[in-house]
Each structure stands twice: as C-alpha cells, then as structure tokens.
Amino acid sequence: MGYMTVLRALRDARLAPRLLASPSGEGGSASYVYQLPALLPQHESAELFDYFCNRFDGWKTESDAFGRQQRATAYFGEDGAIFSYVGLTCRPKPWPTALANARKRAELVASAHGTQVTACLANHYSAGGDSIPWHSGKCQPSNSGP
C-alpha cells in the first residue's frame, strides 16, 4: 500500500498525520515515520502521561552493549513478542489498561500498512537530564529468527 493511501486513511481517521521519513526519503530511513499529534485527545494524552510518570511502578534501568542506559524502560505486548536490541532481551508484560486507547489508535496506523501492533517499548527520561539521539535499527518479528 502506498504511503499516500496510508496518509489518506490516517487523515480520514482525524489523526492529523505528518510523514517525517520514508524508505525512499532523505536520510536513508528504512521505515515510515509519522508524527500523529491527534493520536489521542488531549485529556487522554494527559491521563496517560500522568499514569506513566506518577502511578506506573514497573520501570527498569539496565545496562546494554553501550553501558548503563540513561533511561528507564518498560515493555508491553502479546505473549511471545520478545524483542532484543543492543544486547538486551525484553519479555513483554501484559498490556496495561491505561494503554488501551493508544493501542487502538496505533492499530489504525498499523492496519493501514497491513500489519498489527503487538508490543510497545516505553521509555522514561528524567526531567531534562537524559536523552537518546535520533537513530534507527533493523527490527524483525521475534519469530523470524536472527
């Protein structure tokens, strides 16, 4: 499916999409990257932010191939949606209820590309102190081998 068809579907869903990168785009991106400012209504976005900042207690900080991570992470997903990167292997926790609406909206994007949302890697950065540079990596489904 062409990205124009996807953008049209996302606009029809009132998600206000903006294509930031595509496989043939500048910068050599291997994926489509969208900004979706209207993914969640503002009040739902604020509730989700509050949940992860103030009520969620499952964050963990680990060391990877580059040393101690500057951020805390949490990984949610379907059973068997194991994700590995930079020497870490993430086993999914069950989807929290707080992510239900965000997941439904993300499914609109995924289904427009003929795929589905199986997991979510969440990152938590301390206020103003931590960061990660813009980057990309090759990811494969956990059942597709190395």
Structural commentary:
The protein is of the alpha+beta class and 146 residues long. It folds into two domains: 1-38, no CATH class; 40-127, Sandwich (Jelly Rolls). Helix content is 25%, strand content 20%. The chain contains three helices and eight strands. The strands form four sheets. Strands 1-2 form a two-stranded antiparallel sheet. The chain has a two-stranded antiparallel ribbon with strand order 3-4. The longest helix is centred in the first third of the chain and has 14 residues, at 42-55. It is globular, with a radius of gyration of 16 Å. The model has no long low-confidence stretch (mean pLDDT 79).
The tally of helices reads 3
| Assembly classification | single chain
Strand order of the largest sheet: 1-2
Top-tier CATH class of the largest domain: Mainly Beta
Radius of gyration: 16 Å
Approximately what portion of the residues adopt beta-strand conformation? 15-25%
**What general outline do the C-alpha atoms trace?**
globular
- Could you describe the largest sheet, including whether it forms a barrel? 2 strands, antiparallel
CATH topological fold name of the largest domain: Jelly Rolls
Estimate the helix proportion, in percent.
Answer: 25-40%
Annotated CATH architecture of the largest domain: Sandwich
Report the span from N to C terminus: 27 Å
Indicate how many domains the architecture comprises.
2
Are there runs of 5+ residues with pLDDT below 50, and where?
Answer: none
Count all strands and give the number: 8
Structural class: alpha+beta
Run of helices and strands: HEEHEEEEEHE
Mean pLDDT: 79
CATH superfamily placement of the largest domain: Alpha-ketoglutarate-dependent dioxygenase AlkB-like
